[in-house]
Each structure stands twice: as structure tokens, then as C-alpha cells.
Specification:
Low-confidence stretches: 6-20
Largest sheet: 8 strands, antiparallel, barrel
Strand order of the largest sheet: 1-3-4-5-6-7-8-9
Length: 393
């Protein structure tokens, strides 16, 4: 029996415009075991054939493929097409050289548990699958003649998990229940496959806290000119609770230094250069990455944007795009795994060879373009004694 031409056309038309976008997923081959025996009695009732018999399909191998796009970093929508070919058994339990083929096309939402628990760097990503679609069952005899069939609306409900091998490849496993709404029966499926991500996974958004201006106490100081003021802070000795304050320090009505919160801003850069066609960090740059980690620990709310770049070499622009992303991820992984920086404070992006800083036609220029450039920003608040020059500013 020929494959469903409409399903194949849908895959081809959908894949073309999405291939260049981030978060596009492809499962080129899904293999599974399709359990159909739970529907035996119902199928005997609805699949009456022209030869006077009724038929049902046995359990068998399921093969399929899926194309999807990530809606959030842990949720995606997929279009899946699959086929299950097995023997057809008549109401008397005989095969009689009859074959059954079931084609299914459905749209499914894969909702990751991290959508509710928060994003992590854990490679194991469990999810819930919810979807709906169409099922087409056809039974043929040994000569290829059509005997009977059924076209029905189905609903999918399942539990599964992705295991991310790297930012581009994941292993997928899933258990699924399939409900036939038109005939009110249940089928089951267990499947596994490999998922490929084009353009990299969507990254979680990292919120940067707003800046706060220091509070300055401008309360007037009451001075009694007839009293002696030994430290010259404007508060007479008779009521000065903090004698001997430095001349440049602002004091309150008791003559004590006024504490004030000031914000110290952090902005630093990191540059790491790579060998041709490599994303391995060379030892000479590890001390620089360690300095970045030290500063990020000193400024607990600091974040880093890590940009990966490539020279204009390699087999294709897509290859260089993935290489630039891998270089950015390598720096993020070292900050996280070796220096303990929280992953949600680090964002990565790859630009391929679109942003060169040197001529790609020379070896020296290409060496400069094979790089990671990171910008680290943040701030911390400290309490200090307010000085008069702060008031002037």
C-alpha cells in the first residue's frame, strides 16, 4: 500500500521555511511497538468486509517521523506521520494471506515538566504528550485487492523523556495511549527515536534586576554656635555622640556618620580564541575564565552573555553556525562545571561567521575570527559612610 501522499507533502512544505530557524526539531525515524489487540472486539464489529468476514489487525512494528518547533525552552508542537504494517485476522482467527496497514498523522504538544518546575541543565527532560489526528486502516488480500478499511479521528496521550546528548541531538523514548473516537476503542504504543535540533534550543530568559539609586540623608543639622565643636562636624560637643569624626564625613543630628548604600557596577569582557574547526578551550585561556568566575561570585547578581564566532571556513554556513554555538557552550560549561557559576546566569548565542573582526582571507584574520566574546555585567550594593563630596555629586 502506498504511503499517504498528503502527509509527505505536508512534511516537505513545513520543513523548508523552518529549517533556518532556532528551535526546529526533526525526528527522522521513530521506531515502536503498536499494540492493537485491545480493539479486537470493536474492530470485528466495524470493519466488516465485502467478502462477508470481519477483520482486525494484529500488534506490529510502527515506523514514523516527526517535525516540530519549540514554543518555549521546554514545550514544542510536532506533526507526526507513521505507519504500522501487520497481518489481518478474520473473525474466525485465520489470516488467509491478508495484510493490514494503519497510517496515522497527528499534531502533538510535548509539554516538558520544566515548564512548571523551572529550567535546569539536567540532560534528562521528561514531558507529557497531548494531541489529535487521523487514522486510516486498510486490509488487502494476497493479490493486493482492497477488502475493508476504516478512517477515524484519534486522540493521543502519553508520557516520555528526552535525553540530550548535546545541544543538537537527543534520544527520545515514549509510551502512548491512542483513543479511536469514532469507534470508541483504545490502542497503545511504545516508541523510541533520535531528535535533531536545527539552530539550537530556545534559551530561557534571564531577568536582570533594576538599578537602585543610593539613598542620601539630607536632614538639616542643628548647630548651637555658642557651644564648642572640636571635630568641626557642625554638631556641638555637648550633644556630639560621635566625637572625632573626619572633616569630610556627613553626620546626623547626633554627630555620627550617616550610612549610605552605594552601588558598585561590574562590566568586564572575556575573549577566548580557538584552533581551526575546534571548540576545545586551550589551557592558556583557563586563568582568564577563572577571573570571570571570581568576579561573578563577588557580584552575585551578575550575568554573562557569551557570543560564539567562527571563521569563514568549513563545509557550509550551517556547519560554522553550529561550531560557533559549540564554542559559546564550551565556555559556559567551564564556568558552570569547573567554577560553580549557576547556569541561569549565563546565556549563549552563536553568530557563525557573520560578525568577523578581521579579514577572513588571511590566516591571521581567520585566527582572530575563531573566538568567543563574553560581556559580564552586574552590580552590588555596599554600605559606607557618606562623605560631603557625595552630596555635591
Amino acid at each position: 500500500m502506498k504511503l499517504n501522499k498528503i502527509a509527505l507533502a505536508l512534511f516537505a512544505m513545513t520543513a523548508a521555511p523552518l529549517a533556518a530557524n532556532a528551535g526546529v526539531t526533526i525526528s527522522p525515524l521513530l521506531l515502536g511497538y503498536h499494540y492493537s489487540e485491545g480493539a479486537d472486539d470493536e474492530q470485528l464489529e466495524v470493519m466488516g468486509a465485502t467478502d462477508g468476514n470481519s477483520y482486525y489487525k494484529e500488534n506490529g512494528l510502527y515506523t514514523g517521523a516527526a517535525l516540530g518547533i519549540e514554543l518555549t525552552p521546554s514545550t514544542q508542537f510536532q506533526v507526526e506521520y507513521g505507519v504500522s504494517n501487520t497481518d489481518a485476522i478474520d473473525q474466525n482467527g485465520n489470516n488467509n494471506d491478508t495484510d493490514a496497514e494503519q497510517e496515522m498523522i497527528s499534531g502533538n504538544f510535548l509539554i516538558g515538566f520544566e515548564e512548571f518546575s523551572g529550567y535546569t541543565d539536567n540532560a534528562f527532560k521528561p514531558y507529557v504528550l497531548v494531541g489529535a489526528g487521523r487514522s486510516k486502516i486498510e486490509v488487502e488480500n494476497a493479490s493486493g485487492d482492497f477488502i475493508t478499511g476504516s478512517k477515524d479521528t484519534i486522540g493521543n496521550l502519553g508520557l516520555g523523556a528526552m535525553y540530550r546528548i548535546n545541544d543538537a541531538l537527543s534520544l527520545r523514548g515514549e509510551a502512548r495511549a491512542i483513543h479511536n473516537f469514532d469507534n470508541n476503542w483504545w490502542e497503545g504504543m511504545a516508541l523510541a527515536g533520535l531528535e535533531v535540533v536545527l539552530g539550537g534550543h530556545l534559551a530561557p530568559t534571564v531577568a536582570v534586576p533594576p538599578m537602585q539609586e543610593p539613598l542620601v540623608d539630607t536632614a538639616p543639622v542643628v548647630v548651637v554656635e555658642s557651644d564648642l565643636d572640636s571635630d568641626g562636624d557642625g554638631v556641638p560637643d555637648s550633644i556630639d555622640a560621635c566625637p572625632g569624626t573626619p572633616m569630610n564625613v556627613v553626620v546626623d543630628e547626633r554627630g555620627c556618620p550617616v550610612p549610605v548604600d552605594i552601588t558598585d557596577e561590574l562590566k568586564m569582557e572575556l575573549r577566548v580564541f580557538f584552533d581551526n574547526d575546534k571548540s576545545t578551550i586551550k589551557n592558556q585561556y583557563k586563568p582568564e575564565i577563572a577571573k570571570v568566575a571570581e568576579k561573578m561570585r563577588e557580584y552575585p547578581n551578575s550575568t554573562a552573555r557569551i557570543e560564539g564566532h567562527a571563521s569563514k571556513t568549513g563545509p557550509s554556513a550551517r556547519y560554522n553556525q553550529r561550531l560557533s554555538e559549540a564554542r559559546a557552550v564550551a565556555v559556559k560549561s567551564m564556568l558552570t562545571n569547573e567554577f560553580g557559576i549557576e547556569p541561569n546566569r549565563l546565556s549563549t548565542v552563536g553568530y557563525g561567521y557573520d560578525q568577523p573582526i578581521a579579514d577572513n582571507n588571511t590566516e591571521e584574520g581567520r585566527a582572530m575570527n575563531r573566538r568567543v566574546y563574553a560581556i559580564i555585567t552586574g552590580d552590588k550594593t555596599m554600605t559606607v559612610e557618606q562623605t560631603k563630596d557625595m552630596v555635591v555629586q
